[in-house]
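ARCHIVE CARD
CATEGORY: sequence design from structure
SOURCE FIELD: tokenized fold
FIELD CONTENT:
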């Protein structure tokens, strides 16, 4: 899981300048230093694996404080009974344990027992916890400064904090080391870079490392590139790589290129990703299965299935065994293209290579059937999976539920929900949203509200804005404006939404019922609350005025919209034009149509339908035919029903 700094970035940035070392001033002699800090050489590492049990026992030896008398460690100053002695005793004991553990680390270093020393320091950092860096640095400086191994312990302490994701403590140790002119190893910098890779501080720390004369390791560039890619800063990652190559500092690793290729494929830049394959070969690196899996995934994502299959066959013929992830990429590629019938061939190919389909494979297959409208086949695949003893996850069930709602198969929905409950699966926000939206769309508002209540009572997921929008829309469609208004006010009181979209739904509901009074009141409530009405809000009010037949007020409001600074849309004009057509004021309607064209507002199919309907009512068929020709030349499809629910004649 990506690490998030416990301190805000501004505070981390304040600590970083302390890492800068003055190059102009002469540096005092550095304490005796091992060639690779506390990281052993290859020979030492090999010997380390075969350490005796005595070595392991040294790590676990009793490192408590010296024997105490009356609960106070020897040598510690005594306090009076009324001075809060218990807290003081605890602090003294804590410090004594830290001193003993650091002393043990020095002893282990002298015996060249690197792994045991690192384990002891890691345990110390865990025991002392976050914010303990200042106290431990004080102990190292005041009690162990004369030890020739002290510099190694300082560096190892910074590394331990970084590995424990206590980044602010690690930065504190580094700043103290810098002020004391102690050498910081590249391995410690790498650990800290890894902890900060998801923040903007990582690049600054990398620059500090170079300014201090520490050459990046072979992993340093990969850590920075990985962090930038995970933040979707692919452009910055490429620039960083280009700069490092230009300066001749880049140390190529296959991992680095794989990270960049994966990021580029996720963005759909497959051709750019393929160019890195050539660069890998230029550096003498051998592409691994992850490299080819990444490219195959990218090709499938953009629909280049032939190229993906060709690459897959070439790689497997060369003897490379690809994992199930690659097969799933091919299967998903066919799903995205709607070629579900090709999927069984890939599954057969998998089994021929000794790779059995997993839950992801079956989920993709089920999704393919559901998206093509064959939900029954999707349900059969589900049964086959269950018969094999596999358990579906909530993602698979969500795909099936969504497809069942589209088909209106209530009985199957209830059965599937019962199955989810019996298995004991936890619903996630997507599953809840599918249920709420599905029930609302089918007019089952009560069930949607029950799901919303269950969602809130679960205390794991909370309703989203889209969930509230679906419920409000469902209530308004059923004409339950009292309930919709109550729900809106309840949501506003509980979540304080600043999104005018919620209010637009209810205003539109009032307008469609012809309740212009309540629509205007809610409009006023928006402005009082400091929200800004949109053109959608105004279109709904305009429709309300037209609905009650007050054309004079509707035309006045239409002009007021234009003066308000909001840009009228095709819906704005069409709404008023339809009302004028119904009232027989066709010439005024045509004037509005001409105004709309003059302002370069594109008419839609509904607009043309309204104009044709108005002309035909007055038997002006020649003009109507000309409008139809104009509509045909602009590629508009004629609808048999416009958005206002008015049936239209078919013109031949």
């Amino acid at each position: 899981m990506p690490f998030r700094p416990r301190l805000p970035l501004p505070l981390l940035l304040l600590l970083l300048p302390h890492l800068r070392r003055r190059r102009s001033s002469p540096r005092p002699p550095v304490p005796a230093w091992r060639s690779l800090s506390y990281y052993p050489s290859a020979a030492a590492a090999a010997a380390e694996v075969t350490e005796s049990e005595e070595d392991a026992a040294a790590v676990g030896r009793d490192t408590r404080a010296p024997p105490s008398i009356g609960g106070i460690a020897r040598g510690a100053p005594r306090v009076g009974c009324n001075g809060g002695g218990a807290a003081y005793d605890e602090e003294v004991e804590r410090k004594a344990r830290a001193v003993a553990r650091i002393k043990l680390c020095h002893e282990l270093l002298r015996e060249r027992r690197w792994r045991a020393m690192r384990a002891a320091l890691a345990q110390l950092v865990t025991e002392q916890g976050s914010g303990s860096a200042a106290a431990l640095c004080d102990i190292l400086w005041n009690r162990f400064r004369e030890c020739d191994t002290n510099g190694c312990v300082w560096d190892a302490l910074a590394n331990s904090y970084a590995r424990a994701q206590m980044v602010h403590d690690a930065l504190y140790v580094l700043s103290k080391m810098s002020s004391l002119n102690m050498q910081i190893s590249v391995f410690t910098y790498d650990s800290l870079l890894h902890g900060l890779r998801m923040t903007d501080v990582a690049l600054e720390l990398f620059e500090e490392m170079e300014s201090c004369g520490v050459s990046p390791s072979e992993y340093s560039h990969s850590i920075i590139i990985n962090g930038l890619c995970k933040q979707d800063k692919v452009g910055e990652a490429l620039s960083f790589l280009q700069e490092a190559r230009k300066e001749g500092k880049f140390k190529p690793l296959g991992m680095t290129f794989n990270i960049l290729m994966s990021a580029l494929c996720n963005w759909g830049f497959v051709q750019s990703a393929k160019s890195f394959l050539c660069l890998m070969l230029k550096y003498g690196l051998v592409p691994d299965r992850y490299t080819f899996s990444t490219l195959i995934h990218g090709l499938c994502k953009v629909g280049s299935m032939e190229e993906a299959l060709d690459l897959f066959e070439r790689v497997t013929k060369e003897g490379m065994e690809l994992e199930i992830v690659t097969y799933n990429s091919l299967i998903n590629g066919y799903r995205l293209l709607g070629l579900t019938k090709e999927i069984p061939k890939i599954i057969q190919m998998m089994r021929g290579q000794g790779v059995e389909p997993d839950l992801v494979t079956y989920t993709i297959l089920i999704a393919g059937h559901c998206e093509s409208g064959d939900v029954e086949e999707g349900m059969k695949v589900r049964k086959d999976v269950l018969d094999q003893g596999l358990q579906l996850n909530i993602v698979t069930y969500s795909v099936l539920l969504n497809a069942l709602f589209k088909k209106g198969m209530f009985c199957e929905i209830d059965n599937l929900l019962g199955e989810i409950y019996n298995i004991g699966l936890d619903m996630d926000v997507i599953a809840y949203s599918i249920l709420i939206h599905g029930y609302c769309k089918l007019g089952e508002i009560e069930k949607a509200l029950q799901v919303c209540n269950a969602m809130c009572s679960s205390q794991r997921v909370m309703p989203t804005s889209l969930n509230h929008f679906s419920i409000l829309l469902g209530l308004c469609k059923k004409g339950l404006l009292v309930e919709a208004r109550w729900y809106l006010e309840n949501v506003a009181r509980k979540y304080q939404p600043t999104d005018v979209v919620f209010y637009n739904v209810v205003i539109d509901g009032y307008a469609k019922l012809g309740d212009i009074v309540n629509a205007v009141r809610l409009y006023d409530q928006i402005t009082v609350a400091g929200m800004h009405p949109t053109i959608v809000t105004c279109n709904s009010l305009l429709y309300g005025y037209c609905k009650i037949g007050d054309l004079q007020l509707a035309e006045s409001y239409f002009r007021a919209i234009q003066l308000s600074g909001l840009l009228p849309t095709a819906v704005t004009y069409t709404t008023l034009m339809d009302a004028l057509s119904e009232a027989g004021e066709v010439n005024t309607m045509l004037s509005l149509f001409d105004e709309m064209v003059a302002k370069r507002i594109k008419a839609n199919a509904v607009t043309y339908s309204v104009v044709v309907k108005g002309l035909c009512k007055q038997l002006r068929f020649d003009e109507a035919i000309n409008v139809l020709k104009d509509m045909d030349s602009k590629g508009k499809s004629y609808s048999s029903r416009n958005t206002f629910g008015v049936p239209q004649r078919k013109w031949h």
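CARD ANNOTATION: The radius of gyration is 35 Å. The chain has a mean pLDDT of 81.
SHELF: design records, drawer C
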